[in-house]
Amino acid sequence: MGEDGEDRRGGGSGVSDDFEAELAADERFERRLFWRQLAIVVLVAALIALLIMVG
Amino acid sequence: MGALEWILTVFVIAGGLPLVAGCYQFVLSGLHRFRRHSGGELEREPNVAVVVPAWNEAFVIGRTLDTLVALDYPAERLRVYVVDDASTDETPDVVLAKAAEYPGRVFHLRRPKGGEGKAHTLNHGLRQIRAEGWYEAVLVIDADVIFTSRSLRKMVRHLGDPSVGAVTAYIKEGSRPANYVNRFISFEYISAQAGARRAQNVLGAQACLAGGAQLLRRESLEAIGGEIDTSSLAEDTFTTFNVQLAGKRVVFEPHAIVWAEEPRDIAGLWKQRVRWGRGNVQVTLRYRRIWFHRSAGRLGGVSFALIWFSVFLMPALMVLSSASLVTLFLLDRELSIDAFRSLWALNLVTYAFVTLSAFAQDGAAARRSWLEAVTFPGLVSLAIIVCTTADPVLDALPDWLLLFAYVWLSASMLAAYLVRRLERVPVAGRLAPLLLYMVGYGPLLCAITAAAYMAELRRAEMAWEKTEKTGAVGDLA
Predict the structure, then answer these.
(1) Domain hosting residue B137, numbered range
(2) Same structural domain for residues B92 and B175?
(3) ipTM of the predicted structure?
(4) Does this model's pTM top 0.90?
């Protein structure tokens, strides 16, 4: 496995069974990303408010 | 405030347009979970013909072929065609050995006369594949890329949606050991690929299928004439636009990860990106009728145009902004300081937003490149940000320093160009990394875009200058 948890070696010559589980993990990442981006938007909005107050 | 002062202030703020577009993309990318474009189920995996253009790729091609045949994909549904562009090194020997090792799965196609560029090489392979008629989708890749095991399956599943014509993957910088240029590129790709392409999925219009990972449905390839455009330096962008103008969607699969070896020095990066930049100029002119025209579908939307032109016009906007600040300074010093402060406050907000977002999009790559993430705009620009936010500092600056800060927005591009020139100077060239951290990678990209404009204006020869590959990604496996 590589540093990113990605398999850099390539799989077997056929098709593996746990593909659906990996897709589900990808979907969970996308859901988490939504909340993370939302948190960042709130944080940056606070920074803008601070800049306006200071300015 | 007079009319001239108003106009100059607007020009100064126009320099912030690319910053607004950058933030907008990351806001959109957060909505990606709602627009994943994976509707519909495939009855089975399609027959995929992988086309690998190769010119003197002996260092990397063997490893690439090994990983392709080992992909997590039905073996009987995957064939790899290496199109050897009359290589003069051991590429034919390596490919023929792999063809013997993987009979019926790896094929060697050789062009008798090479040197016409990647698009011609690809078309040689596409003609062969179309003549055979076996393929249901074609995957165009570069000779050095390493597909992670399940990346192809993740890309292919989008073809279950009949409205999808092409799919691209997340190309990541994979050179190990990575030097400072590699790490800057790695961080850049989080914004330019993971962030921007997620945003473009949300918009429903993709700017570019990554050249190293372009999966096209058979019907889409046929709809664009069965061949790749050979008239430009951006054949992948032309393919992307043509597929979408033919009525199909192009989507990005962020979890299909493909590792690529990118340039290790500024000169190599410059050469590669001038080619990309010139290609973008050619695309902008060729498709001039689609911009802001709803008849072109999502490609003609305002949002897509904002993203496209904010990058395309960035060098011109930087110069306009700097020149307007200096003129404003001569007319009204206080007003120039206010306009400058507003612009750099926007810079600070964008810097914070984009950097934090990049860590959210791809934490592993961002952590590996944390120093380059922090210094992406350059240490000089960061010092200016500090000065503009610390209120009394800016007002107390002597005029010459204030003017330097005003001019820096565009002068940083010139400084980046000089760093590139210095890199090749013996001994002094060792300072290039330190100077690039000071000047910034962002200004370097702006300078390259400006150089691409100039090359197009003087109609410089469209030579396909290949990036040297050493197999640094393959060594990771």
Answers:
(1) 33-264
(2) yes
(3) 0.89
(4) yes
